[in-house]
Specification:
The complex is a heterodimer.
Chain A: E1 8-11, E2 29-34, H1 43-51, E3 78-85, E4 91-98, H2 107-111, E5 118-121, E6 126-128, H3 138-142, E7 149-151, E8 156-158, H4 164-167, H5 174-178, E9 184-188, H6 189-206, E10 213-215, E11 225-229, H7 249-255, H8 257-280
Parallel strand pairs in A: 2-11
Antiparallel strand pairs in A: 1-5, 2-9, 3-4, 5-6, 7-8, 10-11
Helix pairs in contact in A: 7-8
Chain B: E1 7-8, E2 12-14, H1 18-42, H2 48-52, H3 56-81, H4 89-96, H5 98-102, H6 117-141, H7 151-182, H8 186-191, E3 194-196, H9 197-203, H10 205-212
Antiparallel strand pairs in B: 1-2, 2-3
Classes of the chains: A alpha+beta, B mainly alpha.
Chain lengths: 298, 220
């Protein structure tokens, strides 16, 4: 929400150019989540609520260690607990810290109609500006990860900000600072990808995880949050992480061909009716004119 | 089918009763609001329309409520007019010579009744789009009240809402053009209710014969 030293790269619902586009030489920032060393302690959940002053809400016990079934408008960071039985019958406990992925090609921003309600900074952070949010919920249809949530009282949508206010002051996000195992890292995208690949290589070569790898889906242009997974071929095991996330075809159709077709039809229709009036005019000059013209045609 | 059209003094006839005119304008004003606020949500280049209407949040808040008003007005018009809007053989013939109608060669048109085939198409187009807009609009408005709601249904609802709104915009443009510009007398009829008998004879010969009991074209 703070824009102290952040420049805007992209703006939702915006006609014309973007003031900060390509104005700064800046690192793309990235959060690395190593699911293989996460112990599910939820320190990051607490740190997120603490730093962002989110109110304490009701938790839902659903026969797992998970705080609640899914993220909420005022609960942006949630560890998903999944029990997975391996082929040899042994149990694996998969824990994934779920939050906004900060896509390079954000579906929420593409779907949003309100000028400046969603911005992407030059450092890659995708942030909601609630002052400009009109509460239509289009961003919810745009997100491939089902992250944005609406406050039903105020009709404004909220999600993880990647602690844009902290990052703009050269601090790491609150969740990173709280992690006791070091499974969370924060830095430039290049550095984080490098670190993630090294860790995945270690898992492949020295631990028994031949499919270990990095989750940085190309379908959304890469993400500002990357995961190291034990098995990168089955991301769905980690609480439904999509294997190949894309902006939904409905949103692409709506914001692409339908928009251009609709605009062309509306402008063409107005022009067509105007030209029709120039060419043929009214059917009669006035109502009184109707009588003398009756049956004038041979 | 029959309609209590009264022949008035000075060669005029009452075409639209007060309830018909009133419901038409409830629909008309609510539609214009929906059109302008909807266009603001449609394209960033038209978002300034929301500023004129009180801002994005106000437009977003009022759009669904005004939509309900429009739906009620369309339902009332359906109730009044659906019986008169059945497509007849004359209407099929009218469609096949619609080119003459566009060229203002009205004397070459088959004798339309109280409503011609174009007006009937407008009516059915608006009724069908209204149902689609209402169903998808309510879902987009309050998805949390539908226990079976899902992201996919919401996405498809959004597309259907935009597409059917675009169809109504096309119908609306033709409707306003015909009523205000092309057929002099039509706009007055939906304000004051009456048209001249010449108007009836020229544009709705079938209706003219029905209300006067005289042939519309004595020369034939």
């Amino acid at each position: 929400m703070s824009q102290a030293t952040l420049r805007v790269q992209r703006i939702s619902g915006h006609a014309g150019t973007v003031p900060g586009e390509d104005a700064q030489r800046e690192y793309t920032v990235c959060k690395l989540i190593d699911t293989t060393t996460c112990i599910g302690c939820k320190a990051c959940e607490v740190a997120c609520m603490d730093w962002n002053d989110l109110p304490f809400g009701e938790t839902i016990f659903d026969n797992t260690y998970q705080t609640m079934p899914e993220t909420r408008w005022n609960y942006w960071n949630l560890i998903l607990f999944n029990e997975h039985e391996k082929e040899d019958g042994s149990l694996m406990w998969l824990m994934r810290k779920n939050q906004c992925m900060h896509c390079a090609d954000p579906g929420c921003l593409a779907a949003c109609p309100s000028d400046g309600a969603i911005v992407q900074y030059t450092n890659g952070i995708v942030d909601f500006q609630q002052a400009n949010c009109i509460g239509c919920g289009y961003c919810i249809t745009g997100c491939p990860f089902d992250i944005p949530k609406m406050n039903p009282q105020t009709h404004r949508v909220f999600k993880c900000t990647l602690c844009a206010d902290r990052v703009s002051e050269a601090l790491e996000p609150a969740c990173i600072k709280s992690c006791p195992t070091g499974c969370l890292h924060f830095g430039s995208k290049d550095d984080m990808k490098d670190l993630a690949e090294k860790r995945a290589k270690q898992l492949r070569e020295h631990y028994n995880f031949p499919n270990a790898g990095v989750y940085d889906p190309a379908g959304v242009g890469g993400t500002g949050v990357v995961y190291v997974l034990h098995d990168t071929t089955k991301p769905e095991l980690y609480g439904g992480l999509p294997a190949d996330p894309h902006i939904s075809w409905t949103v692409k159709l709506w914001k692409g061909p339908l928009k251009w077709l609709g605009n062309a039809a509306m402008i063409g229709g107005l022009l067509g009716l105007f030209v029709h009036y120039l060419r043929f005019g009214p059917k009669a000059r006035s109502e009184e004119d109707l009588e003398p013209h009756e049956g004038e045609q041979p | 089918m029959s309609h209590p059209d009264q022949i008035l003094a000075h060669g005029r006839v009452l075409r639209y009763s007060f309830p018909e005119r009133a419901w038409h304008w409830v629909a008309g004003f609510s539609y214009v609001y929906l059109l302008l606020s909807g266009l603001a949500f449609w394209s960033p280049w038209l978002f300034w329309l929301a500023m004129i209407l009180g801002g994005g949040q106000v437009s977003r808040m009022l759009h669904p409520f005004v939509g309900v008003v429009f739906a009620i007005a369309v339902a009332a018009m359906y109730n009044m007019w659906a019986g008169q809007m059945r497509i007849t053989d004359v209407d099929k013939a009218w469609f096949s010579s619609v080119e003459h109608y566009a060229r203002n060669e009205d004397e070459k048109m088959p004798p339309a009744g109280r409503y011609n085939a174009g007006q009937k198409s407008l009516f059915w187009g608006f009724v069908i789009c209204m149902v689609l807009l209402l169903v998808t609009g309510i879902f987009m408005w309050i998805p949390q009240y539908f226990p079976w709601h899902s992201l996919l249904i919401l996405r498809i609802a959004t597309i259907i809402h935009a597409s059917s709104a675009l169809i109504t915009i096309g119908l609306f443009m033709i409707h306003v053009y015909m009523g205000v510009f092309a057929e002099r007398g039509a706009f007055g009829s939906v304000i004051r209710g009456d048209v001249s008998l010449q108007f009836a004879r020229r544009y709705h010969p079938g209706w003219y014969e029905e209300i006067t009991g005289q042939p519309a074209s004595p020369k034939k």
